[in-house]
Amino acid sequence: MAQILNFPGDRPGMNNEEKAQDMVYDALESDSPVQRKRLARKAIELDPFCADAYCVLAEEYESIEKRRECFTKGIAAFKEKYGKKYFKENTGYFWGLIETRPYMRLCAGYGELLWETGEKEAAIAQYEELLRLNPNDNQGLRYNLLNWLLAMGNLEKAGELLKKHDEGSAFMLFSKLLLIIKTEPSNTKKIADAYRKANRQNPFVVEYLLDKKGLPDYEPEYYGFGDENEALTYCFDAKKIWEEDDTAMAILGELV
């Protein structure tokens, strides 16, 4: 006898919103890209406001336009569902509300897409808005944003961001070093002090910036503060920014 199975997410007593969210969980647990897409699409059919389903679809598509469509539709759906008043009332601790997190992930992914497609000012604006909504930056967006500001030569905003997030990670310490070199290239003492502090936190970074070691094909999935994976994660995004500044590379070479 053929076994009768419920469609994933089709559990007794659930409304369409709950069923859609359940399908998203099933999609995230699936090893099949086809199944993940199918479940995400079905979730959107049941609940057009299911932001998490748009997140799943955006990650599955390789087409830039398809990804853009998923991001923009998901973002628009969340805004339509919750309205302007919700944003106004919850700005400042947005990530603390569970229902906002799919929206925040969509916006972060869309920001990366904008940067990748050359819409750089729009990407920066997207991340600045996310930090306005959630100044604690639980998503770690400040690292990409800082790289983008330095790459675009927006040094004043880069300095402001560093002051707001004064932390001892390699990301911030080497970004601070680069900012000082860009803004005060003749201040050798300040540069040397910043270099010592950054290099003490993570001595692996300079090896990759100066090509003493080559970057692997893929960015590591995890890292710890001060370890080599942290250096790799930083250099995957920041190395090009350093290399585009001949003065910065020359000064860094002299410091080693």
UniProtKB/TrEMBL annotation:
InterPro entries in the cross-refs: TPR-like_helical_dom_sf, TPR_rpt
Residue spans of the TPR repeats: 104-137
Family annotation (PROSITE patterns): TPR (PS50005)
Alphabetical keyword list: TPR repeat
Protein name according to UniProt: Uncharacterized protein
Organism encoding this protein: uncultured spirochete
